[in-house]
């Protein structure tokens, strides 16, 4: 079993133009995946709508993992997403993640809270924008 992590997943989803959204999602997330961001639940389809929207906004970026813990099927991390948008604006968001992993090493459920470090007021909802 190869376990995924948030850096690999977000890099493939948001920054790897060689992968389609479906390929990136299948690599890192189970078919029954669910996510709660800042209190708002999304099923896999809604999550992919969110990522498709983000793909239209971002030009380049980096995921910086500060701490990352695996314990059996549990996962937690604290990371910062640094994104340069296509309009040249920059956004940095710190994210706190707790997750359940499937036996095959992919994410089954993520619950996360985001904290805007840099960006405009309009960017505050990027963690769940669709």
Quick description:
The chain is of the alpha+beta class and 130 residues long. It has three helices and six strands, in the order ααββαββββ.
Can you walk me through this structure?
There is one protein chain. By secondary structure, the protein is an alpha+beta fold. Helix content is 25%, strand content 48%. Strands 2-1-6-5-4-3 form a six-stranded mixed beta sheet. It is globular.
- Fraction in beta strands: over 45%
What average pLDDT do the residues reach?
93
Straight-line distance between termini: 32 Å
Shape: globular
Main sheet: which strands, in order across?
Answer: 2-1-6-5-4-3
Radius of gyration, in Å, reads 14 Å
How do the helices and strands follow one another from N- to C-terminus?
HHEEHEEEE
Uncertain regions: pLDDT < 50 for 5+ in a row? none
Structural class: alpha+beta
Number of helix segments?
Answer: 3
Share in helix: 10-25%
Largest sheet: 6 strands, mixed
Total E-strand runs? 6
Q: Which key terms come to mind for this protein?
A:
130 residues; alpha+beta; 6-stranded mixed sheet; 3 helices; 6 strands; 25% helix; globular
Describe the protein's topology.
Elements: H1 6-15, H2 21-28, E1 29-37, E2 40-43, H3 44-57, E3 58-71, E4 74-85, E5 90-101, E6 107-118
Parallel strand pairs: 1-6
Antiparallel strand pairs: 1-2, 3-4, 4-5, 5-6
């Amino acid at each position: 079993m190869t376990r995924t992590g948030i850096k690999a997943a977000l890099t493939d989803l948001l920054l790897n133009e060689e992968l389609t959204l479906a390929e990136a999602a299948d690599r890192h997330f189970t078919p029954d995946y669910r996510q709660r961001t800042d209190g708002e639940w999304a099923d896999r389809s809604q999550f992919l709508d969110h990522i498709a929207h983000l793909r239209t906004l971002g030009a380049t970026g980096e995921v910086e993992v500060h701490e990352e813990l695996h314990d059996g099927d549990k996962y937690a991390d604290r990371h910062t997403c640094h994104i340069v948008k296509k309009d040249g604006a920059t956004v940095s968001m710190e994210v706190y993640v707790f997750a359940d992993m499937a036996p095959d090493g992919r994410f089954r459920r993520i619950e996360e809270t985001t904290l805007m470090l840099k960006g405009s007021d309009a960017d505050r909802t990027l963690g769940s924008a669709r």
